[in-house]
């Protein structure tokens, strides 16, 4: 969609260029969301792709994903480091309601910062306990867990002029076994629920529910819980919501069932 109110596009090649961000002037990376609908009140764009950041790097065993990394680049990370969690990258990308053309422009950071409940990159990074590096408008750097960065439906902890630089996935999460489930009301529809389980080498289990809740919800256990207890804990979450892609009670019920499936799968592969 053409944005007829935009009069300036500023390529950001240095952090100082982000000072141009202000009410009405917003950052843009791939633009798959920005150009998908009318952006009332937006008069300028600051192009983050001009930073030319590498899509991803490995630092001290952690995976650092640039916010401008596209979904196509993320899905293509080679499976050459022995990460048991590696399959989750491609799995999460397939949860995006979009074609391969969208994969080649949509960015990891853009998907998280849109903060939609069905954002698959929010699901992925929350499920792996990733931490976002936020460049604050006042010049500070702040690290925020992705599960805390997204605070509600279309809401997050970013202020005007703040930009997410990257996401750091800890080596401990990459070393864990994962299981993934997604459900939608139609075969290629928007996610009604995305549930990710992570079983650490020491037996600790983390379940992340998203898509069905307005923000990522996590349950943590020292060991794999009993299936009925896990289903009870999932059903006890309180941030379910209703929209055209699913009713709250349906989302609660299917998330509990998917959690039990994930628990059983990870128990089986850990034997």
Which helices and strands occur, and which strands form pairs?
Blueprint: E1 8-11, E2 25-28, E3 44-47, E4 56-59, E5 62-66, H1 71-75, H2 87-93, H3 100-103, H4 108-114, H5 120-127, E6 131-135, E7 141-145, H6 146-149, E8 150-152, E9 155-156, E10 163-169, H7 171-174, E11 177-183, E12 193-199, E13 205-210, E14 217-221, H8 227-235, H9 248-269
Parallel strand pairs: 1-3, 2-3
Antiparallel strand pairs: 4-5, 5-10, 6-7, 6-10, 8-9, 11-12, 12-13, 13-14
Report on the architecture of this protein.
The chain has 271 residues and is of the alpha+beta class. The protein is 26% helix and 25% strand. It contains 9 helices and 14 strands. The protein has helices at residues 71-75, 87-93, 100-103, 108-114, 120-127, 146-149, 171-174, 227-235, 248-269; strands at 8-11, 25-28, 44-47, 56-59, 62-66, 131-135, 141-145, 150-152, 155-156, 163-169, 177-183, 193-199, 205-210, 217-221. A 5-stranded antiparallel beta sheet has the order 4-5-10-6-7. Strands 11-12-13-14 form a 4-stranded antiparallel beta sheet, sandwiched between helices. Strands 1-3-2 form a 3-stranded parallel beta sheet, with no helix packed on it. The mean pLDDT is 94.
Give a brief outline of the structure.
The chain has about 270 residues and is of the alpha+beta class. It is built from nine helices and 14 strands.
* Sequence stretches where pLDDT stays below 50 over 5 or more residues: none
Strand content: 25-35%
Helix content: 25-40%
Strand order, sheet with most strands: 4-5-10-6-7
Helical/strand content category: alpha+beta
Mean of residue pLDDT values: 94
Largest sheet composition: 5 strands, antiparallel
Counted by DSSP, the helix tally is 9
Distance between the termini: 52 Å
Radius of gyration: 19 Å
* Count of strand segments: 14
